[in-house]
TrEMBL record:
Record protein name field: Taurine import ATP-binding protein TauB
Lineage of the organism: Bacteria, Bacillati, Actinomycetota, Actinomycetes, Kitasatosporales
Species whose genome carries this gene: Streptomyces smaragdinus
Entry-linked Pfam families: ABC_tran
Domain ABC transporter: 14-245
Keyword Hydrolase applies: no
Keywords: ATP-binding, Nucleotide-binding, Transport
UniProt-listed InterPro entries: AAA+_ATPase, ABC_transporter-like_ATP-bd, ABC_transporter-like_CS, ABC_transporter_ATP-bind, P-loop_NTPase
């Protein structure tokens, strides 16, 4: 059976094989290979300049790899961008809401682009705002919302199209810690109920280990330094996360 998380061949949802990107003499991504399996949440963790945005740009079809291959649900994001519409959704660090549209109308946007009829998209958008805890704020404009609320609208907009793949590009980085922790928890719960596959790009070690099933640590330029299966770690032991954080941040600086 083909579900929203699988592709025709039933293989992994995201696959990079020796993906290499250089801008003149600057290597941004160094023959990077990794896979994300259906239903998995994978974090790509790297410090500033590690090539995270470049990876994201390749996944959304905004940039072609200099060499190697990039596939999302078996498709080439550059050549097959049209076929990927509605299958992939992105939430960014800044919520990117249209200031002249209400929260409700902002969430409707993705559905509008996909041609969903007016009544249906109004219902779906309202339902999603309810699910992210903003059922009371449908008619508010972005400037009437807090940063956390704006990011919730952005998440609702991303998820409302029922995408198989969700990309988070530092989506919680600009929020205060308490709001960020709350949103990360909500995101994990939504990923579990909606069963989408997620790739989370972040520089935050806490965020990566909190959200993801698997954490891929990048060096600079982007290459895999280590991969952690987060289920194998028990951070209830005092100091255990601090020890891991030290190891991981050294790798990220390498
Ligand atoms: N269009 C470009 N032209 C030239 N160099 C670029 C271009 N885009 C990115 N780079 C370089 O590629 C490297 C990786 O950049 P990238 O923006 O992908 O890193 P990043 O991990 O997203 O960083 P940050 O966390 O600071 O956003 C950097 O050395 C950057 O200067």
């Amino acid at each position: 059976m083909i579900t929203k998380n699988s592709n025709a061949s039933g293989d992994c949802v995201i696959e990079l094989k020796d993906a290499h990107v250089s801008f003149g003499d600057v290597v941004a991504v160094d023959k990077l290979s990794f896979q994300v399996n259906p239903g998995e949440r994978v974090a790509i963790l790297g410090q500033t300049g590690a090539g995270k945005s470049t990876i994201m740009n390749m996944l959304v079809g905004a940039l072609a790899a200099t060499s190697g291959t990039v596939r999302v649900v078996g498709l080439d994001p550059v050549a097959d961008w049209h076929a990927l519409r509605g299958k992939i959704a992105v939430a960014f660090q800044d919520a990117r809401l249209l200031p002249w549209r209400t929260a409700h109308a902002n969430v409707e946007m993705g559905l509008q682009f996909l041609g969903v009829d007016r009544r249906k998209r109004r219902d779906i958008a309202a339902e999603w705002l309810e699910r992210v805890g903003l059922g009371h704020a449908l008619t508010r404009y972005p400037h009437q919302l807090s940063g956390g609320m704006r990011q919730r609208v952005s998440l609702a907009r991303a998820l409302s199209v029922d995408p198989g793949v969700v990309l988070l590009d530092e989506a919680f980085s600009a929020l205060d810690e308490a709001t960020s922790v709350q949103l990360r928890g909500d995101f994990v719960r939504l990923a579990q109920t909606e069963k989408f596959t997620a790739l989370i790009v972040t520089h935050s070690i806490e965020e990566a280990f909190e959200i993801a099933d698997r954490v891929i640590v990048l060096g600079r330029p982007a290459k895999v330094m280590a991969t952690y299966d987060t289920a194998e770690y028990d951070f209830s032991e005092p100091g255990s996360f601090e020890t891991l954080r030290k190891t991981v941040s050294e790798m990220m600086r390498a």
